Amino acid sequence: MKLPKRTCKPLLLFMAAVGSLWLITGNNLSQDSWNPPVLFFDLLNYVDIDRGRSECNCASIWQGDTEEIEKAKLMTLHKDFRRSVRISDEDYINATQDCEKFKYRRYFTVPLSLEEEDFPLAYSLVVHHKVQNFEHLLRAIYAPQNVYCVHVDTKSAASVRAAIEGIVSCFPNVFLVSQPVSVVYASWSRVQADLNCMADLYNSTTTWKYFINLCGQDFPLKTNLEIVRMLKSLRGDNSMESEKMPGGKIWRVTNVFQVVNGEIKGTGKKKDPPPFNLPILSGNAYIVASRGYVHSVLKDLRIQKLLEWAKDTYSPDEFLWATIQRIPGVPGSKWPSRKYDMTDINAIARLVKWQGHEGQQGSLDAVYPECQGNHVRGICVYGVGDLRWLLQQHHLFANKFDMDSDPVVVFCLEKYLRLKALATVRQKMMVNYHTRVKHY
């Protein structure tokens, strides 16, 4: 709810002067003035609301302090600490019975700037377990002007679904996908989950600018304002891995696969060539795509034929978006020439530390330093020792994080992003305050 404009100026002067409980910025001094709703002042003061978080010296960890990193590692080994920071599915189910109270887990329920309010984003979140991971991710990316589609695997435990339903119910711009599916690893169903969210998001009342898809173990490396500005700089282009498919992966698109008893298996049959002789590119499941790209995915007849052709391939999510990105005429796409190939390191969509590309610091053969956490299927599950390196990267999001493995890296990354967002708000507040004092 916005205050009447006649109220804003005197109340701003009074409250900024005495440091009261409210923050109000903006009026109509210029077309570029910021005029957000009223904010409770306590939202501007970072509070360690999660159990155990205040025990971490995040400021030192951000700087790579080896002593504090080792302390944090030892702390996460203690069962009492792990138990103290864990939030169960049942806790979330109970907490979301009172949504107003739940949102005081420091969700930003008003836009933090006009720039962000005018550039809404659409998110697809595909999850199947680890509700606490999901809730931390949602809180880190939540903004009231954005819109969020959540796909919960139909195989998920009843408590997981109930907890996520409870969380989703507390926010008008967060909703469950209209057609959930049972996701089988490396099968078409992973693509279908995102396609269903794409359709729901495109048909929503929010005219968002960019689509970003995530899983429950992703986490942002940038604030919402930073994400908005980086997406604006794309000027309508998309950003995703899209490059020539390695020879070792060609079998994925030249053989027929099907799901048998919940697992994807080869049939021994060969596939026909792709429609229109499209070059099949290599990529990954996670993308940053313009609204126009999503419209093409949903409506372009060429793409519809490609989607149909891809349904019996292996891990279609790791080539489909990359291939669409190189189809001439798709908004934000790049020409299929190899000159326009893009690796996951250069794309901004998502940062992943693959075990095979890790190496010791200073090694010319290493793409990135060794994982400071543990590995799952050849992917680094980040530890607290990875945090300083993560903050130096240009990507919008990183994967994987796991509250069960290392909650401290999530706590400290979330705290870093929130303090950064709040610092921008305070700075804007002071600029507007001084401007108004001058004009009062």
Percent helix range: 25-40%
- Our count of helices gives 17
- CATH names the topology of the largest domain as Spore Coat Polysaccharide Biosynthesis Protein SpsA, Chain A
Main sheet summary: 5 strands, mixed
CATH class designation of the largest domain: Alpha Beta
* Strand-pairing-aware structural class: alpha/beta
Low-confidence stretches: 1-42
Q: Note the beta-strand portion.
A: 5-15%
- Overall form: globular
The count of strands amounts to 18
The CATH architecture of the largest domain can be given as Alpha-Beta Complex
Number of domains: 2
Terminal residue distance: 25 Å
The main sheet orders its strands as: 5-4-3-6-12
**Rg (CA only):** 23 Å
Briefly summarize what is shown:
By secondary structure, the chain is of the alpha/beta class. It is built from 17 helices and 18 strands.
Secondary structure elements and pairings:
Blueprint: H1 5-18, E1 22-23, E2 39-40, H2 58-62, H3 66-77, H4 79-85, H5 89-95, H6 99-102, H7 114-117, E3 121-127, H8 131-141, E4 147-152, H9 158-169, E5 174-176, H10 188-202, E6 210-215, E7 218-220, H11 224-233, E8 243-244, H12 251-254, E9 255-260, E10 263-270, E11 281-282, E12 288-290, H13 291-299, H14 301-310, H15 320-324, E13 351-352, E14 358-359, E15 368-369, E16 374-376, E17 379-381, H16 387-391, E18 397-399, H17 407-439
Helix pairs in contact: 5-9, 10-13
